[in-house]
């Protein structure tokens, strides 16, 4: 269960999200409910100021949808791994699969299993990682809600979440083309940062995928496939 | 602490939860046999690393929508230290955990002590 090693980062990020919910003026009950069920840090952080400002519901939900658009790409990738499950289990799997769980999973299993046994083993790995991430995230969101008066947001504890992602990024950077793709995606995400709803991340993913498809058959990269 | 909950807020929170399920499972819903075209399948193998880089890089080098113009930023040193640790350990064992710990050990003193 690789997500145990990144759990402190998820935990610190959950903690700061809990604090942010309380600092926005949500009541304890509302913050607890949000921390328990929404399970999407970036869309929560986007929705919190809108809730505080009393924005219309459709604006908040549309914002959450746009911030989550990268997950739609992930679900296209994950489809072959889950279609043997009944619908409700597919929806549950999707609900619980965050960025980190998806990245760890797709790195560990580049191809969907070809028989029932392999598929089940893959599913078990995914469920374990998602379980660890859920406990770390929800547990620490609740702690953040309760202890919000003692943990100033200025401490920047949430940066531990970024460092967790950085560690995973380092472990993925195993070939030249993969390092190039980090450079492209990072640069595009910075250049497109002004886009609303964190769409810079979606644009970065799409641009990187297209460029890598073009590069992988060129002289420099033909030796290595990602 | 206040425990009263506004029904409108509760409805928004439930709506956001449904949005989480919908976006993360969008391609799981239809059970019609259907496959992505081959080029898209190949392309998607670059999606995880691109998504991570797209999330992480702006968080390291931008403040309030602007590229930072100073080297006196605790994040830069934390990132160097964390990545340095990872490569020093050659990614073995608990290298990711080490990246978090070493990075925060550099970040917190600079950020809280020097205000970077």
Structural description of this entry:
The complex is a heterodimer of chains A (226) and B (116). Chain A is built from 11 helices and no strands. The mean pLDDT of chain A is 90. In chain A, α1 runs antiparallel to α9 and α3 (41-53) runs antiparallel to α4 (57-67). With 226 residues, chain A is mainly α. The radius of gyration of chain A is 19 Å and the shape is globular. Chain A has 2 domains: 3-172, no CATH class; 175-226, no CATH class. Chain A is 74% helix and 0% strand. In chain B, α4 (74-88) runs antiparallel to α5. Chain B has helices at residues 7-25, 38-44, 47-61, 74-88, 95-113; strands at residues 62-63, 66-67. The radius of gyration of chain B is 21 Å and the shape is extended. Chain B has 116 residues and is mainly alpha-helical. Chain B has one domain (7-30, 48-113). The longest helix of chain B is centred in the N-terminal third of the chain and has 19 residues, at 7-25. Chains A and B meet through α1, α2, α3, α4 and α5 of A and α1, α2, α3, α4 and α5 of B.
List the helices and strands and how they pair.
The complex is a heterodimer of chains A (226) and B (116).
Chain A: H1 3-23, H2 28-37, H3 41-53, H4 57-67, H5 69-82, H6 87-96, H7 99-108, H8 116-146, H9 159-172, H10 176-191, H11 199-215
Chain B: H1 7-25, H2 38-44, H3 47-61, E1 62-63, E2 66-67, H4 74-88, H5 95-113
